[in-house]
Design a protein that fits this description.
Helix content: over 70%
Number of strands: 0
Oligomer: single chain
Shape: elongated
Structural class: mainly alpha
Length: about 150
């Protein structure tokens, strides 16, 4: 089993002094320094080429309509639309124009309701904030009650 290396932390200024002293004492030859420097520069080139290769794999960026319909769509649907290309984006824009303001308000309320519901225990949601409560009081008032419940908690 190999021995663990001992790490000595040395500030850059001291490291330069130490290396120069080792060269003057004849313990390190300047050719060894050139070899280590070449390894260092080669490592930098290797990393830069890997980064360039990874960037090239990304491909071109496709502009996507980030409108009301895309924002309301599930992430998987949005990814599928982006992969489909410009024609699909045009269809999404047309569909977004057809969504009524009432429908958008309903979606927004549903999103708020679900977000709050995840913060409250399931048994409390069923008893106090479930379908019955929404039917009696309306979704907006139930959301307000849920916010108050979370604030007290």
């Amino acid at each position: 089993m190999a021995r663990p290396r001992k790490v000595v932390e040395v500030p850059p200024g001291e490291a330069v002094f130490i290396v120069e002293a080792l060269i003057l004492d004849g313990r390190i030859e300047p050719s060894m320094l050139a070899e280590y420097r070449a390894r260092y520069l080669e490592e930098i080139r290797t990393l830069e080429s890997r980064i360039a290769h990874l960037r090239s794999l990304g491909g071109p960026v496709i502009p996507v309509a980030v409108g009301v319909a895309v924002a309301a769509a599930a992430p998987a649907v949005a990814r599928a639309i982006r992969r489909a290309g410009p024609k699909a984006v045009a269809k999404v824009r047309k569909a977004a124009a057809r969504v009524s303001p009432e429908r958008m308000k309903s979606r927004e309320l549903q999103g708020r309701y679900l977000g709050l519901m995840r913060q409250i225990p399931k048994d409390v949601v069923k008893k106090r904030f479930g379908k019955d409560a929404i039917g009696k009081k309306g979704k907006e008032s139930v959301i307000a009650e849920m916010q108050q419940y979370i604030a007290k908690k």
